[in-house]
Amino acid sequence: MIELLVVTAIISLLMSLLFPALSAALRQAASTRCQANLRTLGQAMIVYTQDHNGHLPGSALTSAAHLWFDNAGNLAVKSEYSIHNVPGPIEFYDYVAPLAGILRLKVPDAPDGMSRLRAYREMPLLLCPANVGVTATLSAGPPGLEDGQMLSYCTGAAFMLGPFRGSHATEYSGAAGLPGTPYWDAPPGYSPHIARLGNPARKIFLADSGRWSRYNSKPTFSYARIDQDHNSTLFSDFGPFWGISKSYDRSVPNNLNNAAIDARIYAYRHGRREQFLRTGAYRLNAVFYDGHVQSLDDMSSADPELWLPSGSTIAKPTAKFSTGLPIVYEDVRQRYLPAASPTSPYVAP
Question: What is the rounded CA–CA span in Å between residue 328 and residue 184?
Fold first, then answer.
């Protein structure tokens, strides 16, 4: 009996020593597979731009341009299209549909947005291994659409926007349609084109995403329209520098003290998984427009340069939304644009 107890104690000790190493190895393996997914998607994006004269996939002005028309200055979806009858992209920011042929993805032939979304949820290439099994709860949508696997990756929305006018004037301003004051202004004449981004090695195409998650809610999603704006899209986000990001909420630990949830664990899933740890403890993977993949922590990924076209300006980084939340997270402002002001705006390299 004593010998058995000694052996059991030794085994328990060995297991306690090995489990942390095994967990770390499993996390690294998941990150490696995730990076392989992103690298493949990045290569498909490069092929798409080469085949389409440099235009980017996943924009209302490029791969989704056939879904809408400009009626006297108002952006409107063509009357023949709805959630149940939408060809190609299931909404304006959908980057999967334009890449599906290049990647030979098995997307349903029927032009039904809900069936295509269900297919996206099940494609291994679109699922980060560290995100498999994370359910997004439906907050709004048509009958028949249900809770399901959260989509794993999203694009940088600032690279995708176009000249939306009329009813969207409160959200989008300027010739390029990017948010104007008090958000930021796009460089003059910007369009979603590979030549207009700036240095492609410093501009994120796709990254691990926690869409939609916030400091006060676990992942949810809405799919009620095909003309999804930047707040409602399933496929894109302005990035972790932005104070109301629905993918990269960084309200804690430096920006909000009463958060119910540390939502960093959803997008930054390749570092530590405990909540409310120090800045830099969490990591995500991203693929850039030159095709290289990089692991970034929750502070380095919040550099506005990575998410804005070169020449974009931020003039009021201390401004707040009507909800009181900052337009630019305070720790981001202090690190990346401490001197930005209306007379000396930050200019994205």
Answer: 10
84-95 burial: b if 16+ Cβ within 10 Å, else e: eebeebbbbbbb
- Report DSSP letters for 287-301, one per residue: EETTS-EEEEETTGG
Residue 130 in any domain: the answer is yes
Decide if 333 is inside a domain. Answer: yes
Quote the number of domains for the chain: 1
Residue 166: other Cβ atoms inside 10 A: 13
Q: Within 13 Å and on the Cβ side, how many CA atoms surround 270?
A: 23
The domain of 129 spans 22-347
Would you call 307 exposed, middle or buried from its count of C-beta atoms within 10 A (0-12, 13-18, 19+)? Answer: buried
- pLDDT above 70 coverage of the chain, percent: 87
3 within a domain of the structure (yes/no): no
Cα distances (Å, whole numbers) of residue 68 to 36, 82, 102, 265: 34, 11, 24, 36
Type of residue found at 100? A
171: confidence class by pLDDT, cuts 50, 70, 90: very low
* 94-119 residue pLDDT tens: 999 999 999 999 998 888 999 999 99
User: For residue range 86-100, what is the model confidence (pLDDT) as tens digits?
Assistant: 999 999 899 999 999
From 348, 53, 11, select the one nearest 184 (Cα to Cα). Answer: 348
| Residue whose C-alpha is closest to residue 176's, from 201, 194, 159 | 159
Buried b (16+ CB within 10 A) or exposed e, 100-112: bebbebebeeeeb
Report the run of H or E that residue 266 belongs to, with start and end.
helix 264-267
Both tokens of residue 67? 């879904």
Q: What pTM was computed for the model? A: 0.90
In a domain, 15, yes or no: no
Question: Between the CA of residue 327 and those of 120, 225, 343, what are the distances in Å?
Answer: 31, 26, 18
